[in-house]
Amino acid sequence: MATNHIGLPPEAFLSNPGSPDRRSRAESISLRDAKRIVLAAQGFGRTRPERVSARHLRSTVDRLNLFQIDSVNVLARAHYLPAFSRLGGYDRTLLEGDAWGAGRQRRLFEYWAHEASLLPLDLHPLLRWRMARAERGEVGYQALRRFSVERRAEADAVLERITAEGPLAAADLENGSSRSGWWEWSHVKHALEWLFWSGRITTATRRGSFARVYDLTDRVIPPAVRALPTPSAEAAQRALIERSARALGIATASDLRDYFRLTPAEADHAIADLAEDGVLVPVRVDGWSQKAWMHRDAALPRRVRGAALLAPFDPLIWERARTERMFGFRYRIEIYVPQERRTHGYYVLPFLLDEALVARVDLKADRQAGLLLAHHITLEPAAPADTLDRLRIELDRMAAWLGLGAVRIGVVVSEA
pTM (2 decimals)? Predict the structure, then answer.
C-alpha cells in the first residue's frame, strides 16, 4: 500500500505550522481520500502476515488504543475480532496472555474507555483522572455514585474481603451471604463496579462464562506502570484526544470525543490546544456538514485494497453516525430487537471490501456441529460483482480461525 503523508510536508496543506493562517483555514479533501486516510489509520490495506506473532498483535492494539469488550459469544467475543479483521487468523491465547497473564506477561488492563475495554498499560496514567472522579462520585451511573459517600461502608467491606482473600468474582462474594441488604447480588455487583471505576480494584482474570475476577489494582498492574507519573486531567485529556486523532485519521470533534467517551468540557480544550500546536489540521470533507480535523501524521494511500468482516464494536464503525457519514452505510445492531422485527439478523457483521462497506452478514459459530453459519447475507446496492466470492474467502478464513470445519451459507439477498 503506497502512501503519502499528507500532514507533512506542510506545503501539502498549509505553509507555516505555527501560523494563525494554519490554525484558522480549513482545506478541502474529497470523501474518497478521507476514507483512504481513515482506513490506513485504522490499519486496513496492509499485507497480512503469514504467521501472526505477539508483535503483530501488540502493534494492532497500540494502533487502535483499545479493544472494546462485549460478552456476546454467538460468534466470538468482540475483543478478539478487530485483530482478526486486520491480521487474519491468530492465536487467541496471545491476546489472553497479554490481557490476563500473570506478572510481567501482562501488557493490557481493563477499564472504562470506549465502554468496557482492554487497553495497553501505558494508558493507565492517562485514565487516572477518570478514576479519581469516580472515587469522588462524579462519574458513573447513579447506583454507582452512591458508593462514593452514602454507601461507602459497603464498598469498603467488599474491598476488605478482596484484600484478605485474594481475587474474587461477584458470585464468590455473594456465596454464603444474606440475600438482603448489603450482600444482595445487585448491591455486591454495584459495589464492585464502583471500586473498578475508581481504580481501587481491576480485573485479575476472567473465568467460566467470562465473569470478571477482581483483585486489588496494586496486585495486578505491574509496579513499573503504577510508578509512572500521573498527569493533570487536562494533560491526560490532551493525550487521549491526540491518540484518538491518530487512530481515526480524520474526525469531527464529536468523533474525537467519542473514542474515549470524553465530554465536550473534557475534550474541547484539548482539541483547541492540539490545533494551536499544529498536531490537528483543520479540513473540510466533501459532503460533511461538520468541520473535521486531520492528524498531521496521517497517511493518504493511493488506494486501499483488502477484505474484512467487522465486529459490531470495531472502532472503524462503532460510531454509527460516522459510519453513515463516511461510507453511506446505515448500520444498527439488532441483538435487542425481537426476532420478527429484525431486518438483517441477530449478530450482523459489515463486510469491508477495499474502500467500501458492501454487505451485511448474520453470523453464528455452531461449535457443536463445527459450522460457521452465515444465516443471512445482504448485499449493498453498489456491491461489486465479485463480492460473494471474496466474502467466501473471508468466511473460510474465519471458520479456520475459530476451529470450525465448514461454512454454511443461508439466504443471500440484494438491497435495491
Answer: 0.91
